[in-house]
């Protein structure tokens, strides 16, 4: 049950951040590029959470989560490099920096939240598992602050460039 709650908290923290712009202009295409990064992060997070639940309910071999985390880490590093080199256009600096800061937070979340989960073993006690899950839950809640900053920067960018943001289809 706690695992379902953890997955729910993780997904819930992302849900408000999944905004999509209408298509049609270069500023919108730039917005969509930034949105694609947060969407990809969400998809990686869901995949990790689903695998976590399968492992928790089965083998308890949490080291198997390492492969998912490493793929996510590589994505984060690649996107950080892209954003550090990306030229701002149409007043995109605040949005670019918000997404970049979000990626730095996600990297921190991997180090402080995901890696401790991978260190759990079949012999880990329920208390040890709960402690790690509790830490991950706190990190997911803090993550929502970073997502909100991205959303606010995206809204400001859209307003500055004369287009509207649509909520993602559910």
General form? elongated
| Tally of domains | 1
**Any idea what the radius of gyration is?**
17 Å
Poorly predicted ranges: 5-24
The total of helices stands at 5
Whole-number average pLDDT? 87
Q: Please give the share of residues in helix.
A: over 70%
Q: Compute the separation of the termini in Å.
A: 24 Å
Question: SS-based structural class?
Answer: mainly alpha
Quote the beta fraction: under 5%
Task: Give me the strand/helix succession.
Answer: HEHHHHE
Total beta-strand segments: 2
Main features:
mainly alpha; two-stranded antiparallel ribbon; 5 helices
Please, could you describe this protein's structure?
- The chain is mostly helical and 170 residues long.
- It has one domain.
- It has helices at 2-14, 26-57, 66-85, 93-118, 126-161; strands spanning 19-21, 165-167.
- The chain has a two-stranded antiparallel ribbon with strand order 1-2.
- α2 (26-57) packs antiparallel against α3.
- It is elongated, with a radius of gyration of 17 Å.
- The model is unreliable at 5-24 (pLDDT under 50).
